[in-house]
Amino acid sequence: MRPTRQPEPALDWYASAPGQGLLAVEQAAMTRVLSSATAAAPGWLWLGVPGATPPESDRRRGLLLRPGASGLEGDVRCSLPLPIASESLGVVLLQHVLDDAAPGDPLLDECSRVLGPSGVLWLAVLNPWSPYRARWLRSGLRAHDPGRWQRRLQRAGFAVDSLGLQWLGPRWRSAHGDVGVGAVDRLRAGVALTISKRTHAVIPPAPLRSLRLQTR
Fold it and tell me: Which Gene3D superfamilies match (predicted)?
C-alpha cells in the first residue's frame, strides 16, 4: 500500500525561520515525553516534517522517518501500513506531519496499531487561534481546533479521557518561544496533544453472586 496522499510543498514552511521558531520548542518537549514515558514497550517512533530535529534520546530504540516524494524516508523507506509489529512501541511522536492532511488520514490508525497497551501518542499540530498563523498564511498548511483532533483520535481507538493539551512556541516573535497551559498560552503557534491508547481487559470481571443464608 502507498500513502493516500503525497507530501506537499506546504511542509517545507517548517524549514523557514518562522517554522524553526516553533520546531525548536517542540524538540525539547518531545525529549521530555520520551524521558518520562512509562509504557511497557521500549521502542519509539518519530515522524517529523522537513526542517525538524528529532528528540534527544536513545537512538538504538528509536525509528526516525520523514515524509518523502514517494512515501516515508529515513531509517527505512516505506509506505503505509508501517513495517512495524503491532503493539511493539511505547511512544509515537508525530510532529506536524498531518498539518497538510485531509480528514481520515490512515496514519492515526497505524499509530494505534503499533502502540502497545497504554502506549502514548504525542501529536504536534498548528494552533488556528494563534496570531502566528499569519506566518504560515498562504503556505497550504491547515490548522484545526483541538476538538476536531480529539474526534479523529477517538475514531482511531485512543482514550480521549486521557487527552492532555499543551500550547507551544511563540505567540508572534519567533525568538520568544515557550510552552504553557494557561489562558494566555492558548495564543501560541502550536498545540501538542498527548493521549494514551485505549486498553481492554483480557478477562471480564465475573458477576457477583448473591449469597443466601441456608437454614434447616
Answer: Vaccinia Virus protein VP39
CA distance 55 to 52: 9
- Which of the two residues, 162 and 42, has the higher pLDDT score? 162
What is the identity of the amino acid at 202?
Answer: V
Model confidence, pTM: 0.85
For residue 126, the cross-strand partners are 190
Q: Are strands 179-180 and 115-126 parallel, antiparallel or unpaired?
A: unpaired
CA atoms within a 13 Å half-sphere pointing along the CA-CB vector of 131: 7
- Cα pseudo-dihedral 130, 152, 12, 81, rounded to 10: 160
Determine contact, residues 196/119, Cβ cutoff 8 Å. yes
* C-alpha cell of residue 105: 488520514
- What is the C-alpha radius of gyration for the chain, rounded to an integer number of angstroms? 20
Question: What CA–CA distance (Å, rounded) separates 48 from 107?
Answer: 13
What values do phi and psi take at 52, rounded to 5? -85, 150
Residues 92-124: tens digit of each pLDDT? 999 999 987 655 579 999 999 999 988 999 999
Helix (H, G, I), strand (E, B) or coil at 24: helix
Question: Is the separation of the CB atoms in 25 and 174 below 8 Å?
Answer: no
d(CA 16, CA 184): 25
